[in-house]
């Protein structure tokens, strides 16, 4: 903390969240919804409202609105495109979180940032612990890891990095939606079956993030739903839930060439989360059913309403 920074002397509201990515992101919008449901004051500036790369504007925004918590859900998440747009990926996944952590430190904000299972190489066959050695296989994974390392190197206590994986949820098209759209017009779909991870519902991740924050968690945590699946199993389950007559055919990654290499196994061990909060995330299949039910019945409102 820099003692001569005028921002840190101002008391901040008890629970006021600045959610970057909260206006348009897959996770950001879920987080905004849950924060609002839990009666937090909420700030969700989009690209047109705030240039997050401009430190002066960002600090002025923080001084004006005085949030207590800074959630960063902005990221470069196009895994294949990142292989060619290394600089753009690095700017969003590495430089931005470091800048935000620095500002959080100088303004005394609790900083919550998200990272990924793709920091691991997938050579393990039991769930990855937060302290396991990362070894990313892709530009996306590398830039996310460098973001984590840069943030942790600043040594700001009130920092929480949550590694999560395989997100699905409302507000923005995701893997499950893509599969269901394809399944509506196809008799069969070829889906990779040799990549195993843990599908995670954004709404559960948002609730569980707030439980971690409430517990005052600091450092790196793994947080997903529980269980594991291949992409093919996830697709098959989503198709089965909706009753569409489409067959999910298991294939190998070699038969679905992509620019970026994905880990073969990236299940995350969430036991630190369980210990810190006393909660156990629900199984991914149950969360998937909840998502499809809520989607079908339009249960969710716009997070900004
Ligand atoms: N999706 C997944 O399966 C997983 C995601 N994660 C991590 O979780 C976090 C959230 O991911 P997710 O919700 O999927 O991300 P999305 O791609 O859905 O959202 C990214 C957000 O970042 C914003 N953004 C992108 N570029 C800029 C920019 N130059 N300036 C300002 N805002 C920008 C986007 O705004 P706009 O709409 O205006 O472009 C959008 O709000 C990321 O850190 C990601 O690495 C981790 C594991 C799995
Ligand atoms: C649409 C489709 C995808 N696939 C495969 C491709 C890929 O290996 C897998 C998942 O597809 P996607 O490309 O949507 O997912 P991908 O971009 O690999 O997802 C990752 O995104 C980043 C942001 C993360 O952090 C990770 O946790 C993970 O969620 O499914 C098929 O095999 N058949 C298909 O018809």
Automatic annotation (TrEMBL):
GO terms for biological process: dTDP-rhamnose biosynthetic process. GO terms for molecular function: dTDP-4-dehydrorhamnose reductase activity. Its EC number is 1.1.1.133. The keyword Iron does not apply. It holds the Pfam family RmlD_sub_bind. It catalyses: dTDP-beta-L-rhamnose + NADP(+) = dTDP-4-dehydro-beta-L-rhamnose + NADPH + H(+). The keyword Oxidoreductase applies. Keywords: NADP, Oxidoreductase. Pathway: Carbohydrate biosynthesis; dTDP-L-rhamnose biosynthesis. Residues 18-292 form the RmlD-like substrate binding domain. Gene3D superfamilies: NAD(P)-binding Rossmann-like Domain, UDP-galactose 4-epimerase, domain 1. Catalyzes the reduction of dTDP-6-deoxy-L-lyxo-4-hexulose to yield dTDP-L-rhamnose. Belongs to the dTDP-4-dehydrorhamnose reductase family. This is dTDP-4-dehydrorhamnose reductase.
């Amino acid at each position: 903390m820099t003692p001569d920074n005028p921002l840190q002397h101002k008391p901040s509201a008890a629970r006021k969240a600045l959610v970057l990515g909260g206006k348009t992101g897959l996770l950001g919008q879920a987080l905004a919804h849950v924060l609002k449901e839990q009666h937090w004051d909420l700030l969700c500036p989009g690209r047109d409202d705030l240039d997050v790369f401009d430190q002066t504007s960002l600090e002025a925004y923080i001084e004006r609105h005085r949030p207590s918590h800074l959630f960063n859900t902005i990221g470069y998440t196009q895994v294949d495109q990142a292989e060619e747009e290394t600089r753009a990926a690095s700017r969003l996944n590495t430089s931005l979180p470091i800048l935000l952590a620095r500002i959080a430190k100088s303004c005394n904000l609790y900083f919550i940032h998200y990272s990924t299972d793709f920091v691991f190489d997938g050579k393990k066959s039991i769930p990855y612990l937060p302290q396991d050695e990362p070894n990313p296989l892709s530009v996306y994974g590398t830039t996310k890891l460098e973001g984590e390392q840069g943030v942790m190197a600043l040594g700001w206590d009130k920092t929480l990095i949550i590694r999560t994986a395989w997100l699905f949820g409302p507000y923005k098209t995701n893997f499950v939606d893509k599969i269901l759209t394809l399944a509506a017009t196809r008799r069969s779909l070829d889906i990779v079956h040799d990549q195993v991870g843990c599908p995670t519902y954004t709404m559960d991740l948002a609730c569980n993030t707030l439980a971690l924050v409430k517990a005052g968690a600091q450092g790196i945590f793994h947080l997903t739903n529980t269980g594991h699946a291949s992409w093919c199993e996830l697709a098959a389950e989503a198709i089965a839930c909706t009753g569409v007559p489409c067959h999910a055919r298991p294939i190998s990654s070699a038969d679905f060439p992509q620019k970026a290499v994905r880990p073969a196994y990236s299940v995350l061990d969430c036991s630190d989360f369980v210990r810190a909060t006393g909660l156990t995330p629900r199984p991914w299949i149950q969360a998937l059913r909840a998502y499809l039910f809520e989607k079908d019945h339009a249960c969710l409102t716009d997070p900004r309403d």
